[in-house]
Amino acid sequence: MARLLCDFRFLIFPAALVFIYVQFRLFATQSEYADRLAAAIESENDCTSKMRLLIDQISMQQGQIVILEDERKRQDKECGQLKDLVREYERKGLQKLIGKEQLVVAAVVIMACNRADYLERTIESVLKYQNSVASKFPLFVSQDGSNTAVRSKSLSYDQLTYMQHLNYEPVHTERPGELIAYYKIASHYKWALDELFYKYNFSRVIILEDDMEISPDFFDYFEAAAALLDKDKSIMAVSSWNDNGQKQFVHDSYALYRSDFFPGLGWMLSRSTWDELSPKWPKAYWDDWLRLKENRKGRQFIRPEVCRTYNFGELGSSLGQFYKKYLEPIKLNNVRVDWKSMDLSYLMEDKYLEYFANIVRKAVPVYGPDAVHKAYNIEGDVRIRYQDQSEFEHLARQFGIFEEWKDGIPRTAYKGIVVFRHETSRRIYLVGPDSLRQLGIERV
């Protein structure tokens, strides 16, 4: 018995060790689980905090979405109201024209963008002489863009019809460094002329810009010229502008010329010409495009000696180029010419070549390096020959006229001949190397 008791006591010690080891492992495991539980609780709290932050951000974005949606609805409403207003003014404009189609000579459109003060000055100048002939020359303002001052100014006049060109497509220039403005202008011109010729169905349109004043006989001049435009298909357009129309270079308010160079700046064209031009209208620089030989196809332009428009827009898309030297000194005609009594048949293609050749033939030819000096000492008309562009530019600089060429043609030239007065009534003719042969003055 005592032996068994001894053996039992001997076993208690290892059992105690096992028990202690088990308890130690159990405690270690409980501590590890406690640490994991604490980490899980901390992670859950962090996740909850982030979720609450995300919920707050979503709530804020939902609030912004609601605000933006309200703003969009407001803008849509304003846009709808604006469209209704434009349609109403177009309706009023159409009502004014109903029953008067037979009387209309040409629609007059003022091309505008963002110069409300300039536009007002132009409208007032046009209305001063247009009121008495409003049925013959219905007036429009075409605005490119959404400048509110220009729109408000346009809509404040009951005497005109307002059009608005809105194009939000991005502009991609074809060459680096080009001004986007020239692309926008070309797009606006095409849209406005399409509207006037195809929506309003006019047979002729006179295009003005929002920085022009007109002469007292502006509308009589274009009414007389409209008959020429209809009869002679070799006339591409009729202009009221002379690039060399500065005070010292003009004299005769009755004188008109044909020119191979497109003058622009107040011009009239017919629907038949626009039918040809509209499908291939350029993306930019439309005026230079019209001066290209392949687009003119041998046709010419009618221009006056004394301008019937005056350009006062020193600030514009061309950044004042040429303004001080060439545009500001332009003489605006102040003589009320009775164009209805004038016989303009000499400007028809079949007569003009002979007419012009006769007056050039009478001019005294002057030769030599001092030709300009000699010309000053001759009382009558003078002609000076140039051999190439460089020599022409040298002569032009000496006299002070435009030196610029486009597609091989000097500004204002007819058959290579540039004509201008020089501080008197006498004419100076700068004659190209092949000009006299084209006029039949010299034989091959």
UniProtKB/TrEMBL annotation:
<keyword id="KW-0735">Signal-anchor</keyword>
<keyword id="KW-0464">Manganese</keyword>
<dbReference type="GO" id="GO:0003827">
    <property type="term" value="F:alpha-1,3-mannosylglycoprotein 2-beta-N-acetylglucosaminyltransferase activity"/>
</dbReference>
<comment type="pathway">
    <text>Protein modification; protein glycosylation.</text>
</comment>
<dbReference type="InterPro" id="IPR004139">
    <property type="entry name" value="Glyco_trans_13"/>
</dbReference>
<keyword id="KW-0472">Membrane</keyword>
<dbReference type="InterPro" id="IPR052261">
    <property type="entry name" value="Glycosyltransferase_13"/>
</dbReference>
<keyword id="KW-0333">Golgi apparatus</keyword>
<keyword id="KW-0808">Transferase</keyword>
<protein>
    <recommendedName>
        <fullName>Alpha-1,3-mannosyl-glycoprotein 2-beta-N-acetylglucosaminyltransferase</fullName>
        <ecNumber>2.4.1.101</ecNumber>
    </recommendedName>
</protein>
<comment type="function">
    <text>Initiates complex N-linked carbohydrate formation. Essential for the conversion of high-mannose to hybrid and complex N-glycans.</text>
</comment>
<keyword id="KW-0812">Transmembrane</keyword>
<dbReference type="GO" id="GO:0000139">
    <property type="term" value="C:Golgi membrane"/>
</dbReference>
<keyword id="KW-0479">Metal-binding</keyword>
<comment type="similarity">
    <text>Belongs to the glycosyltransferase 13 family.</text>
</comment>
<dbReference type="GO" id="GO:0030145">
    <property type="term" value="F:manganese ion binding"/>
</dbReference>
<dbReference type="InterPro" id="IPR029044">
    <property type="entry name" value="Nucleotide-diphossugar_trans"/>
</dbReference>
<dbReference type="Pfam" id="PF03071">
    <property type="entry name" value="GNT-I"/>
</dbReference>
<keyword id="KW-1133">Transmembrane helix</keyword>
<keyword id="KW-0328">Glycosyltransferase</keyword>
